[in-house]
Design goal:
Length: 524
C-alpha cells in the first residue's frame, strides 16, 4: 500500500503511482507538473517545510509525518520518507517520496488524546484523579489531578511508601491494610480518610481501588492495582453542618415539647389560683386583705400571660397553630381593647387613641381572638416602653374589593425607641433590646415573635420604624375577608343576661367548685 511520487529539483511532480492518486483524490494528469503545494494544506507551519527542504537539499533523506488534504478538502496523514536522487556528476537530479497511509492511526491518537483531555478536565471538575500500581515493579503512577489533590507540583511520581506518608496516623495504617488485602486476597476498597497535603493542609479524600489480574498471572495474584482519589472535603464539611443542624433541630424540638408540657402543668394550678382569688374577692375583706388580693390577682394574670405566650410559641414551632375564622365587628374589638388598655394608660398619664379610618369596613371575617392578641401585644409593648406622651392604634384600608380588604395597622408610641442594630432581630423569640431592657421593663421577649408568626399565618407582613429616644411605629398588614352581606347586616346585639342551666365537667374537683361558684354568682 505504499504511495510514491517523484519530483524534479524544483519540486514539480514528474511521476506518481495509483495509490497516491487514490488517497489524494487527484488524477495523474492533475498532479503531473504541479508542486506538492497542491496537496499540502498548510496544516504544518512554514518552518516545518523549510526544515524538510533544507534536509533533502543537503543530500540527506528526510523522515516524518505529514498531513495533507484531498481534493475534496479532507485531511489525511502519511508517514513520509523523502530521499534525494544524486546523479553521476554528484548533483541532485530529483527527489523520491515514499509514503504510507497512517490516517487511521493518527485519528485513533487524536481520539485518544481528546478522551484523555476530557478525562483530565472532568476529573479536575469533579476533583477525581486516577492512579495505578504495578505490583511486579512497585512503580506507582499518578495522574495530574492526583498530584494536584496531594499538593505535589511537577511530574513527580512517588513511591508507594511516599504516597502512604500523605495519610496521617491511623489513616495510613488503614490504607496500607487495604492495599495488602487487595494484593493478597483480591479485594477492592472504598474508604474516606483524612489526607495531609504537601503544603501541610489536611483535607478529606475518598480512595477507591481494585486489583487487576493479567492473562498470564496466577489466578489468585493480581498484576496491578487501579484506583481513583477524590477530594470530598466540601462534602464532609456539609455533612458535619447537616449533623449539627439536625442535632440543633432535635434539641429545639425537645425544648418545645418540654416548654409545652411544663406550661400546661403550671397553667392548671394557676387557673385555680385565679379562680379562688375571684371568689375570695366576693367575700368581706378589710382594706389590707383586699390590697393583698389585688396584688395576687395581678401577679397571677401576669404569670398566666407568660405561660400562654410560651404555649403559643410551642404551638407555632410545632406547626400546630391554626386559625378559627368567623365574622366580627371591628368597632367592638376596638371598644374591648380601649376598655382593657385605658386604665393602664391613664395610670401613666398617657393619651391613648384607637381609631379606624371611615372607609375601613366595620364587619370583617377572621380569627378575632388572634387579631386581638396581636393588637394587645403591640399596645402592651407601647405602654410598657412609653413614660410620657401618647400611644395610638390607627387602621387604614390599603386595598378593598367585593370580597376582601387589606388593612394596614400601625401602633405608634413616643417611648424609648429601638436602636437600628436591634431591629433586625427584634421579632425573634426571647429577644429584647438588651439585658438592661429586661431588668428595667420585664417581659419574656416572646410577644413580637408571636405577632410576627400570627400575622404571617394570616397572610400579612410586619415591620418596625424606630429611632433611639424618638419612639416607635410597629406596622402590620392583614388581608381579611368580608362576610357575605356585610353591607346590609344590622349591628350585632349583645345578648341579655339570662338564667341558664349549666353542666360543669372537669377532672379536678377544685376547678369544678370554682366554676360552680362563679356560675351561681351570675344567677345561673
Amino acid at each position: 500500500h505504499a504511495l510514491y511520487s517523484v519530483t524534479d529539483r524544483a519540486g514539480r511532480i514528474i511521476d506518481v503511482n495509483e495509490g497516491f492518486c487514490q488517497i489524494s483524490g487527484y488524477s495523474r494528469e492533475e498532479l503531473i507538473g504541479q508542486t506538492h503545494r497542491l496537496v499540502n494544506s498548510g496544516h504544518h507551519p512554514l518552518s516545518f517545510w523549510q526544515t524538510m527542504w533544507r534536509t533533502v537539499s543537503s543530500g540527506k533523506p528526510w523522515h516524518g509525518e505529514v498531513c495533507n488534504h484531498t481534493k475534496q478538502g479532507q485531511a489525511y496523514w502519511v508517514d513520509s520518507i523523502i530521499a534525494p536522487f544524486v546523479g553521476a556528476e554528484g548533483h541532485i537530479e530529483r527527489f523520491i517520496s515514499i509514503r504510507t497511509d497512517i490516517t487511521e492511526r493518527k485519528n485513533a491518537e487524536r481520539r485518544l488524546g481528546e478522551s484523555q483531555a476530557l478525562l483530565e478536565r472532568t476529573g479536575r471538575l469533579a476533583g477525581v484523579g486516577g492512579w495505578q500500581l504495578d505490583l511486579d515493579t512497585g512503580q506507582l503512577e499518578w495522574t495530574a489531578q492526583v498530584r494536584q489533590i496531594h499538593g505535589v507540583t511537577g511530574d513527580q511520581q512517588p513511591s508507594l511508601q511516599e504516597a502512604l506518608a500523605f495519610y496521617p496516623g491511623e489513616a495510613g495504617a488503614t490504607m496500607q491494610h487495604a492495599i495488602q488485602d487487595a494484593t493478597e486476597h483480591g479485594r477492592s476498597w472504598d474508604l474516606e480518610l483524612p489526607l495531609r497535603r504537601a503544603d501541610g493542609q489536611t483535607i478529606w479524600g475518598r480512595s477507591v481501588g481494585e486489583p487487576e489480574f493479567g492473562p498470564e498471572s496466577a489466578a489468585d495474584r493480581p498484576v496491578r492495582l487501579l484506583g481513583a482519589i477524590q477530594d470530598i472535603t466540601a462534602r464532609r464539611v456539609a455533612d458535619q453542618a447537616l449533623l449539627r443542624l439536625e442535632s440543633a433541630e432535635a434539641a429545639s424540638a425537645a425544648k418545645t415539647a418540654f416548654l409545652a408540657n411544663m406550661s400546661h402543668e403550671i397553667r392548671t394550678p394557676m387557673n385555680a389560683v385565679i379562680g379562688l382569688s375571684y371568689l375570695l374577692e366576693q367575700t368581706e375583706l378589710d382594706s389590707e386583705q383586699r390590697s393583698c388580693l389585688s396584688k395576687i390577682q395581678m401577679a397571677s394574670r401576669s404569670l398566666l400571660g407568660v405561660i400562654n405566650d410560651v404555649l403559643d410559641v410551642s404551638k407555632i414551632e410545632a406547626g400546630e397553630m391554626t386559625l378559627d375564622e368567623a365574622p366580627f365587628r371591628l368597632d367592638e374589638l376596638l371598644h374591648e381593647l380601649r376598655e382593657w388598655m385605658a386604665p393602664q394608660a391613664e395610670a401613666k398619664g398617657l393619651v391613648m387613641t384607637l381609631e379606624a379610618d371611615a372607609d375601613v369596613p366595620r364587619e370583617l371575617q377572621g380569627d378575632v381572638q388572634r387579631i386581638r392578641q396581636i393588637f394587645t401585644n403591640l399596645l402592651s409593648n407601647a405602654l410598657k416602653f412609653t413614660e410620657s406622651g401618647r400611644i395610638a392604634l390607627n387602621i387604614h384600608a390599603l386595598e378593598r374589593g367585593p370580597e376582601r380588604v387589606l388593612l394596614r395597622c400601625e401602633v405608634t408610641d413616643t417611648g424609648i425607641g429601638i436602636p437600628p442594630a436591634v431591629q433586625a432581630r427584634l421579632f425573634a423569640p426571647f429577644t429584647q433590646a438588651d439585658a438592661s431592657t429586661t431588668r428595667r421593663f420585664g417581659g419574656t421577649g416572646l410577644g413580637l415573635s408571636i405577632v410576627r408568626h400570627l400575622t404571617g399565618l394570616m397572610g400579612g407582613e410586619v415591620g418596625v420604624h424606630s429611632q433611639s429616644g424618638a419612639g416607635s411605629t410597629f406596622w402590620l398588614t392583614l388581608p381579611l375577608r368580608l362576610p357575605l352581606g356585610a353591607e346590609t347586616r344590622p349591628p350585632a346585639q349583645r345578648p341579655m343576661n339570662q338564667a341558664l342551666e349549666v353542666l360543669i365537667a372537669d377532672d379536678l374537683g377544685t376547678d369544678r367548685n370554682i366554676l360552680a361558684a362563679m356560675a351561681r354568682s351570675l344567677g345561673w
